[in-house]
Design brief:
14% of the residues lie in helices and 45% in strands. The protein is mainly beta and 174 residues long. Strand 4 and strand 5 form a beta hairpin. It is globular. The two termini are 32 Å apart. The N terminus is likely disordered.
Amino acid sequence: MKVLHQKRWAGVVLLLTCLGMLGLSGCKDHFSDVDIEDDEIIGLFALRGQEIVTNYSDWPIPENDVPSVDTTRINFLMLIRSVDGEKNRVRMYGLEGADVGKREHYLYPGCKTPDDCKIIGMLEGEDLEIDINNNGRSYLANIMIRNNYVEITATYNHQQTTIHYEVDGGVMIE
């Protein structure tokens, strides 16, 4: 359990470091009227929801194996920023199951720096789809961004483990 908390705090430190590098002090003015079509997305979102973990006993999955299914509540911070010079492309930091996660159950488990595990997607209106495969691991997410609010439905798969995420939340503004 201690390792899980250390990884969560490492994710928070990463996000705060990113914010420091981006110079987001005084963010309130930037978030008051976010317009997706003008490529002005930048935000630190506080997300909450549930993850549903389906786990089989072994890999390859034995015939007639019945999986265990556990549902838990999750909370995390995720940073979204526009990619400089590229219309409607966004980069995400701290996306649960993609570049962060627990017990090695995420897309980039060996990632040491954010540049080694980029999560980038293309906005189409208010919708964003992430579809990435990495060394036998896959992550598919449908993300809706509306004003200062995000809804995410995502699925992570690797061998005998599937994790389904349903989260939502708003931008953190003070």
